[in-house]
Write a structure and sequence with these properties.
It is built from three helices and six strands; from the N terminus they run ββαβαββαβ. With 118 residues, it is α+β, with helices and mostly antiparallel strands. Helix 1 (15-27) packs across helix 3 (84-103).
Length: 118
């Protein structure tokens, strides 16, 4: 949970909201074929949620709050034959812009891990 203070009081935003926001922004980038689970626990959660929802944009996304700014880790799969460096730059820029525009919170770092090529 991310907490910050503004002139009107405190605001709390759940990590699930950030993960969904980031996951949808990353999946909309050219060359991204999907999100990949980052650890076994997330894989189990994905299997359980996929039975209910069908699509899980939170898969492969980790959001941490450090000193008032956000650290985002993304685990993705990409299409074969595309420039991975260009995809990573595109995702980094789009995720940073999307999160900062939606929440007015600073994104300190976006780490993109390519775990699969389809």
């Amino acid at each position: 949970m991310v907490k910050f203070e503004n002139p009107n009081g405190y605001i709390e935003i759940t990590n699930n909201y950030f993960a969904t926001l980031v996951g949808k922004a990353a999946q909309s980038c050219f060359g991204v074929t999907g999100m990949v689970s980052s650890n076994p626990l997330q894989s189990i959660k994905t299997i359980i949620k996929s039975r209910n929802d069908g699509d899980n944009p939170c898969q492969g996304v980790t959001v941490k709050s450090l000193n008032g700014s956000l650290l985002i880790d993304l685990h993705i799969s990409v299409s074969y034959g595309v420039n991975i460096a260009a995809i990573a730059d595109s995702i980094t820029n789009k995720v940073r812009y999307t999160v900062e525009a939606a929440t007015d919170l600073k994104v300190s770092k976006v780490n993109v891990y390519v775990d699969a090529i389809n």
